[in-house]
Amino acid sequence: MSDPDNTPTGGKQDWEGFREVDRAIAENRLTAYTWKKTWADPWGRLKLIAIFAALAAFVVFVIVYDVIL
Questions:
Q1: C-alpha distances in angstroms, 34 versus 8, 18, 21, 29, 45?
Q2: Ramachandran class of 9: left when φ > 0, alpha when ψ lies in -120 to 50, beta otherwise
Q3: What is the pTM of this model?
């Protein structure tokens, strides 16, 4: 009737597209995985650089504005 070798074990399905994410969650390294994937993407890298540049510009503005007044 049904082959016992082909049945999923205890609800653990093998999601091929999410295998690396599943391993990252299991090893509690999801944040590192997300940063690496974002840095590997050219648009993601551009967004990260823009966000950090804006943050640095804001910090410089606050420091300069505070010194002037």
A1: 28, 13, 9, 9, 12
A2: beta
A3: 0.56
